[in-house]
Amino acid sequence: MDRTSLLKTWLPGLALVLLAFVSTPAHARSEPLYFALEVRRDGRLIAQPKLLGEAGRTLRAERRRPGATVPDYRLVLTPKGEGDSFQLQVDLSLPEGEGHSQLALLHGQERKLQLGRVPGELEVSLLLMKVDSPEFRALMRLTDETPGTVKSVSCSI
Prior knowledge:
single chain; globular; alpha+beta; four-stranded antiparallel beta sheet; five-stranded antiparallel beta sheet
């Protein structure tokens, strides 16, 4: 097989792969995300995980006391970027039961989910933010210091 026929064979396939990658919107690709959750069982706060994840990748977290055979909770978040919003699947398991929900969230939006059989039985408050955003930096107090701010103080006696 000569070089010309080899190029004719592989070039269309390579062009399709490159076109698919380039035509995928940037926000649909993996994007770092921050999740702040509050989990309440019968109105009582039982967990407050704060997690970093990525759009398009499943995030798993669990809390287990030392020596315990069963975790206090197990959380699975599956975020997918779609346009300006994120489709999110939430799965929560507790020793007493479990819950599942699917929802759409915008950057910076907070929602309350009822995962139990009756309202208030198992409730999750969820905040989603893009990590590289002014709102996230403000939340984490990572903003640049303003001019004239005192950076250090020394004292001698």
